Amino acid sequence: MTELRELPGVGPYTAGAVASIAFGEPAPVVDGNVKRVLSRLLGLTLTDDRCWQAAGELLDQRRPGDFNQALMELGAMICLPGKPVCEKCPVAPLCTSRGGQRKRKQSPRRKAVLNYVLARKNGCVLLRQRESSATLMPGMWELPPLEAAGAIGNEPLFTLRHSITTTDYAVRVFAGDCRRQSRDRWIRLSSAERLPLTGLARKILRRLAAE
Predict the structure, then answer these.
(1) How far apart are CA 88 and CA 27, in angstroms?
(2) Low-confidence residues of the chain, pLDDT below 70?
(3) What value, to the nearest 5°, has the Cα angle with vertex 53 and ends 134 and 32?
(4) Which of 171, 199, 155 minimizes the C-alpha distance to 115?
């Protein structure tokens, strides 16, 4: 699994799925469905780290791939977000939250602004690869971020909306140049989507191609 995590664009979920299902390694897998199943089963509100820990503790060491697929299917087909089908659940006798979790008051969504530089040259755009040690989306490609929008000195080319978990972002894209880093590359716009782009980078480049 460690070697898989070193591949560009491969995060903990993909690495765990491939390692357990394809190679039989005792690696846990956590997605939204699994997190919901474990939270209900244990009767706890789990953080991401605690959820991964719980998935690892419950993992069937002899058949990790089958266990992970069963857990994901349980969340997708039985332990549904709104109305779980508890009467058909094979682990209902062990579940501390049978019938679903009590709905909690939803926290207000946060607002934030992200600024990026769009540098173009001869049909290419400048993209930056995230470090392999990055916590989120290691090795993936994005536009160079702009810390201070005033540094460009003009109005954004365009803005768009992007939402991640509990935060709604107003994304502003500025034309200009930036100080180059070793992880920057000029990539032809026509072939950029072949790279493992972040979801936001893909959205920006598709907007650019459409204009």
Answers:
(1) 27
(2) 1-2, 5, 99-107, 148-153, 165
(3) 75
(4) 171
CA distance 84 to 34: 14
What is the DSSP track for 30-44?
--HHHHHHHHHHHTS
Reported as a single tens digit per residue, the pLDDT across 22-46 is 889 989 999 999 999 999 888 888 8
> What is the C-alpha to C-alpha distance for residues 36 and 100, in angstroms, rounded to an integer?
10
103 found inside a domain: no
Q: Specify whether 149 is located in the same domain as 184.
A: yes
Please give the Cα distance from 74 to 11 (Å, whole number): 22
Q: Residue 191: inside a domain, yes or no?
A: yes
**Which structural domain range is residue 70 located in?**
2-94
Tokens of 63: 């058949």
> The whole model's pTM is what?
0.51
